[in-house]
């Protein structure tokens, strides 16, 4: 009889310990998840990137604007037509709060091989680009720029989240939320209606 009382006490202590353990680990997991959620970027404005000259640019400076974010290349078959149409959109809507953010990338057939100075010269002289040009980045793989990891997380592609080629485009609303993604084959002028809707000028 005495043995069963001891066994009951041991079982009770075990249950109490188990309950305490799961409570504590549950609390830790919950706190961990909360911290992760607080630290995770919630919008484009949470990122700081480098411009083509190597200066830090906090994207919160574009708060309240509609953004089109594009990975660009100087030697791609889409280059001429995309820059021509991007310039048209920029000239037409920049006064209404529209910005194009261009990120050179050399991951696709090495079609952006130059250094930042050469890229800037090409874009400004040959293509007459007046919108902001940023530091050359990788958009896929383990070394992908954090902003591109975020963009792909928010708007995946049809055949996986990876960027498929140069001139993939992401449209961001005035609150810094990624609202749409367009394939490299989508001409910029085909996005004009969506830009107008976000600007409120449709």
TrEMBL record:
<dbReference type="InterPro" id="IPR036249">
    <property type="entry name" value="Thioredoxin-like_sf"/>
</dbReference>
<protein>
    <recommendedName>
        <fullName>Glutathione peroxidase</fullName>
    </recommendedName>
</protein>
<dbReference type="GO" id="GO:0005829">
    <property type="term" value="C:cytosol"/>
</dbReference>
<dbReference type="GO" id="GO:0004601">
    <property type="term" value="F:peroxidase activity"/>
</dbReference>
<feature type="transmembrane region" description="Helical">
    <location>
        <begin position="6"/>
        <end position="23"/>
    </location>
</feature>
<dbReference type="GO" id="GO:0006979">
    <property type="term" value="P:response to oxidative stress"/>
</dbReference>
<dbReference type="InterPro" id="IPR029760">
    <property type="entry name" value="GPX_CS"/>
</dbReference>
<feature type="active site">
    <location>
        <position position="76"/>
    </location>
</feature>
<keyword id="KW-0812">Transmembrane</keyword>
<keyword id="KW-0472">Membrane</keyword>
<dbReference type="InterPro" id="IPR029759">
    <property type="entry name" value="GPX_AS"/>
</dbReference>
<keyword id="KW-1133">Transmembrane helix</keyword>
<dbReference type="Pfam" id="PF00255">
    <property type="entry name" value="GSHPx"/>
</dbReference>
<keyword id="KW-0575">Peroxidase</keyword>
<dbReference type="InterPro" id="IPR000889">
    <property type="entry name" value="Glutathione_peroxidase"/>
</dbReference>
<comment type="similarity">
    <text>Belongs to the glutathione peroxidase family.</text>
</comment>
<keyword id="KW-0560">Oxidoreductase</keyword>
């Amino acid at each position: 009889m005495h043995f069963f009382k001891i066994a009951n006490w041991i079982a009770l202590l075990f249950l109490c310990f188990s309950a305490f353990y799961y409570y504590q680990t549950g609390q830790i997991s919950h706190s961990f998840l909360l911290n992760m959620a607080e630290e995770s970027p919630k919008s484009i404005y949470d990122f700081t990137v480098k411009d083509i000259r190597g200066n830090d640019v906090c994207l919160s400076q574009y708060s309240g604007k509609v953004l089109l974010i594009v990975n660009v290349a100087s030697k791609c078959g889409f280059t001429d037509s995309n820059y021509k149409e991007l310039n048209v959109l920029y000239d037409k809507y920049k006064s209404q709060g529209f910005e194009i953010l261009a990120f050179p990338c050399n991951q696709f057939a090495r079609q952006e091989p130059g250094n930042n100075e050469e890229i800037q010269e090409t874009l400004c002289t040959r293509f007459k680009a007046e919108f902001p040009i940023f530091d050359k980045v990788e958009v896929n793989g383990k070394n992908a720029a954090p902003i591109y990891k975020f963009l792909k997380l928010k708007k995946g592609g049809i055949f996986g989240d990876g960027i498929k080629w140069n001139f993939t485009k992401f449209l961001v609303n005035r609150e810094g939320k990624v609202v749409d993604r367009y394939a490299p084959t989508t001409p910029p002028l085909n996005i004009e209606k969506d830009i107008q809707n976000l600007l409120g000028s449709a």
